Amino acid sequence: MENIYRFTLEKLKKYCIEKGYKPFKAEQIYDWLYRKRVTSFMEMTNIKKEVREILKKDLTFTQLKVLKIEKDKDVHKYLFELIDKSKVEAVLMFHDYGNSLCISTQVGCNMGCTFCESGRLKKVRNLNIEEMVLQYLQIEKLEKKKITHVVLMGIGEPFDNYENVITFIHILNEGKGIGLGSRHITVSTCGIIPKIENFIEDGKQVNLAISLHAPTDELRTKIMPINKAYPLKELMKVLQKYIQKTNRRLTFEYIMLQGVNDTKKCAYELVNLVKNMNCYINLIPYNETSHIDYKKSSSDSILAFYDILKKEHIQVTIRKEFGSKVSAACGQLRANYEEGK
Ligand code: SAH
């Protein structure tokens, strides 16, 4: 038995052909799944009953279990339990431009960023395709609101689960299904260079965000061990290539950690690193967690940092703070749940 939500339209067509049906049947099924959003073959009334009975033997609609929902004014946070009892979270944020869903891509994470709650649990496994598709579908159904943007910034490193993540994006994108536009999808990585190379070759038009968080190798290696394997010079080289090939603007995420990377010196170093690049910097107020010692930068230092970048003609924004009340930083809901809070 295979979960139907792991099928791209192409794969479903192939399956239908193998079963002796026309590929069009796959389009009908896709329409039921992603336009009408039914969750059983019985509801697919324009498909013959005998055929539905046969499909039912191969394909399941198994959903994720919703363990917990925390709601605040502009953010709703979901904790899911997977079949093997692993837990992952997804966060829906209500912006003025739309509703953006932050999706997890792995159970735990091996990247070891020192400030991040998710990484305190080492990677248990990759999420499979349907576990990502279902975060989207189930939340949209429960909320009765359209999700207009998807960001792959939840638990896990998307490029450490490359194949599944790309297929998931493909399913989100499918015009005969969900039909979410590429420009409404953002994948965020800590900077795994070979996978960024693959991503460039695949020519996906989705937005790319890089978790930069420090302007020099010395500092970046201290807070993000991945920088040892893929140092800044090489990272910037591949990112230049990305910009050249795609003609797209790149996003750098920069968490503001008090006294660590929020000094004026850091701001000028950052200017030097990214000047003349088609990019913008998203300054992120750090979401403090009880398990990790970093403190969030004061509003004054964030603004001073912002001003320096602005003055030096770097495009920069300060991310709106979401959900400090609802433990919204990656991995916090899961961590708190496990500790019985
Ligand atoms: N592994 C990917 C995506 C998941 S993390 C990546 O590194 O990009 C998504 C973003 O949230 C990253 O920029 C990450 O550094 C940031 N982040 C992690 N913990 C945070 C916290 N406590 N407060 C604010 N941002 C955090």
Task: Report on the architecture of this protein.
- This protein has 341 residues and is α/β, with parallel strands linked by helices.
- It has two domains: 59 residues, Orthogonal Bundle (DNA polymerase, domain 1); 276 residues, Aldolase class I (TIM Barrel, Alpha-Beta Barrel), CATH 3.20.20.
- The protein contains twelve helices and 14 strands.
- The strands form three sheets. A ten-stranded mixed beta sheet has the order 3-4-5-6-9-10-11-12-13-14, covered by helices on one side.
- The model has no long low-confidence stretch (mean pLDDT 94).
- Bound molecules: S-adenosyl-L-homocysteine.
- S-adenosyl-L-homocysteine binds next to strand 10 and strand 12.
Question: Which secondary structure elements does this structure contain, and how are they paired or packed?
Answer:
Elements: E1 2-3, H1 9-18, H2 24-35, H3 49-58, E2 59-60, E3 65-72, E4 75-81, E5 87-94, E6 99-102, E7 106-107, E8 125-126, H4 129-143, E9 149-152, H5 162-173, E10 185-189, H6 193-202, E11 207-211, H7 217-223, H8 226-229, H9 232-246, E12 250-256, H10 264-274, E13 279-285, H11 299-311, E14 315-318, H12 332-338
Parallel strand pairs: 1-2, 6-9, 9-10, 10-11, 11-12, 12-13, 13-14
Antiparallel strand pairs: 3-4, 4-5, 5-6, 7-8
This protein binds S-adenosyl-L-homocysteine.
Residues 111, 113, 115-117, 153, 157, 188-190, 211, 253, 255, 284, 286-287, 289, 329-330 line the site of S-adenosyl-L-homocysteine.
